[in-house]
Amino acid sequence: xxxxxxxxxxxxxxxxxxxxxxxxxxxxxxxxxxxxxxxxxxxxxxxxxxxxxxxxxxxxxxxxxxxxxxxxxxxxxxxxxxxxxxxxxxxxxxxxxxxxxxxxxxxxxxxxxxxxxxxxxxxxxxxxxxxxxxxxxxxxxxxxxxxxxxxxx
Length: 153
Description:
Layout: H1 3-9, H2 11-38, H3 50-79, H4 82-112, H5 118-146
Helix pairs in contact: 2-3, 2-5, 3-4, 3-5, 4-5
């Protein structure tokens, strides 16, 4: 195991926190989307605006792709070869791109304001944290891909 992963970034702990955040985003976004579709106005999901629907769809997609990139990264860590690292890099790049789209929709939701429930506000904060942790994960994976000191030979 290279020195870079354990000492500089604490890769195993970082991946565990990112996995937990992704599962939390899936849970909160699924609950909000379910109540948005059913039209329960008592829960104050965020009104009947299209921005909320797109935000919920992109946040679920970002979290599912984040879990998928975590699984690809775990396989890469297990096999420790260049080809598995390129798979993990591609998966994390796609996951970060969708997470960045969800982050943009979070910024739009916060900018417009309005009546939003606490679950939607928690989901917004989780997506913001997920965006930065996904970017950190992408940076770590790319460091291992482009420099043999930090990744497989």
